[in-house]
Write a structure and sequence with these properties.
43% of the residues lie in helices and 16% in strands. With 381 residues, the chain is of the alpha/beta class. The protein has 2 domains: 182 residues, Rossmann fold (3-Layer(aba) Sandwich), CATH 3.40.50.2000; 183 residues, Glycogen Phosphorylase B (Rossmann fold, 3-Layer(aba) Sandwich). It has a 7-stranded parallel sheet with strand order 3-2-1-4-5-6-7, sandwiched between helices. Strands 10-9-8-11-12-13 form a 6-stranded parallel sheet, with helices on both faces. Helix 6 crosses helix 11 and helix 8 crosses helix 13.
């Protein structure tokens, strides 16, 4: 990369400390040593992440402890304004528009004549878009000098909201591919023993994510149920937590799916092991801006079956090459895609190898490089 370290002060507003963003911000700070992240709070109720703050190798301010939901948006908006006055950045990066503190930051930057960069992962197909909200969003987005999107679908949506396409940088979602690959490889070397320890079958379909309505888990259960007659030793492993966790357990029990296992939320260091004990990864969401778990699964060599609603299905998943893209509202289509992989070991291996090759283009280093270039480009406008 030709970009030399930049001296400008840059502030990015972010809701909570999340593991996959910490790595990104750490790397971007190599090129922008004066990058400063304002975190509104440690975490939120819907997340169970734990992050060692020693891993935050960038400047940051943590405005509040505890869950984000336990603090008022008005209070946080005021805190953001005061912190921006203290830091006085040359560039402000705002990473969404749904909460009042982001608006506080935008208005501060306009009032003080600062450069503004919009950072978003939202896609138009992600959820219903009421017309009146779209009008508000257009006003918001058009107040920025440039934008960073996570993928092609979020770029298209940002452009529709009024950002000139030539000012949008596609950063690409990424994770630590090597970390997941090594962890899964270690698990595979002791698969029989570890499968017994974790109480999972020796051949598995895997889901990792929140147990929430938008994840469409009933469709996955129905797809799996259609397979167990032909593949009686096939297991289903579902990892995560969320509001539907108890109802999912009840659903599996009522259908007598004895090889289906629910594992509570796992921290990052434990997730690679579960990928290593699995054979096919499925993400059936009806709402999913990207689906970072798809990157993780592919990094471990798993072929994937991914909903057409997920942003990764457009940029990362190559239908028929490294996995299948399916209609999330059609359990039969999901089941048939899984069946093709379960029934054919050679196809499964071929697609798994293609998955590793594909995700190699989505590294945290490349994402950080693109983000840093976008920041420099915005400052230089």
């Amino acid at each position: 990369m030709t970009l030399a370290p930049r001296p400008e002060r840059v502030v990015l507003l972010h809701a909570v400390i999340s593991p996959y963003k910490v790595s990104l911000f750490n790397q971007v700070s190599h090129w922008f040593p004066n990058l400063h992240i304002i975190y509104y709070s440690v975490t939120e109720k819907m997340r169970s992440w734990t992050v060692d703050r020693a891993d935050l190798r960038h400047h940051y301010t943590l405005l509040n402890d505890g869950n984000l939901e336990s603090h008022s948006w008005i209070k946080i908006a005021i805190q953001v304004w005061r912190e921006l006055n203290r830091l006085d950045p040359d560039l402000l990066i705002v990473s969404e528009y749904i909460y009042l503190p982001y608006w506080s930051g935008l208005i501060w930057a306009i009032f003080h004549g600062k450069k503004r960069l919009f950072f978003s992962e939202s896609t138009e197909a992600d959820r219903p878009r009421p017309w009146w909200k779209e009008i508000v969003k257009r006003w918001f987005v058009r107040r920025f000098d440039a934008g960073i999107s996570q993928g092609s679908q979020s770029k298209a949506y940002m452009a529709k909201l009024g950002m000139p396409e030539d000012r949008i940088t596609v950063k690409g979602y990424s994770t630590d591919n090597e970390f997941y690959a090594k962890g899964a490889e270690t698990a595979r070397a002791n698969r029989m023993e570890l499968s017994a320890q974790w109480g999972v079958s020796e051949f598995n379909i895997l889901f990792v994510g929140r147990f929430a309505p938008e994840k469409n888990l009933i469709a996955l259960i129905e797809a799996y149920e259609q397979l167990v007659g032909r593949h009686p030793k096939l297991g289903l492993v579902m990892v995560g937590n969320g509001p539907l966790q108890d109802s999912i357990r009840s659903e599996l029990k009522s259908r007598h799916l004895d090889r289906a296992v629910v594992i509570p939320f796992l921290q990052k260091q434990d997730i690679p092991l579960i990928y290593g004990l699995s054979d096919v990864f499925v993400l059936p969401s009806i709402s999913e801006p990207w689906g970072l778990v798809v990157n993780e699964a592919m990094a471990t060599g798993l072929p994937v079956v991914v909903s057409s609603k997920a942003g990764s299905s457009h940029d990362l998943v190559r239908h028929g090459t490294n996995g299948y893209v399916v209609d999330p509202l059609n359990p039969k289509e999901i089941s048939e895609a899984i069946d093709r992989l379960v029934s054919n070991p050679e196809l499964r291996q071929k697609m798994g190898e293609a998955a590793v090759a594909s995700v190699a283009e989505f590294t945290s280093e490349k994402s950080a490089e693109r983000m840093a270039l976008a920041m420099a480009g915005c400052i230089d406008l």
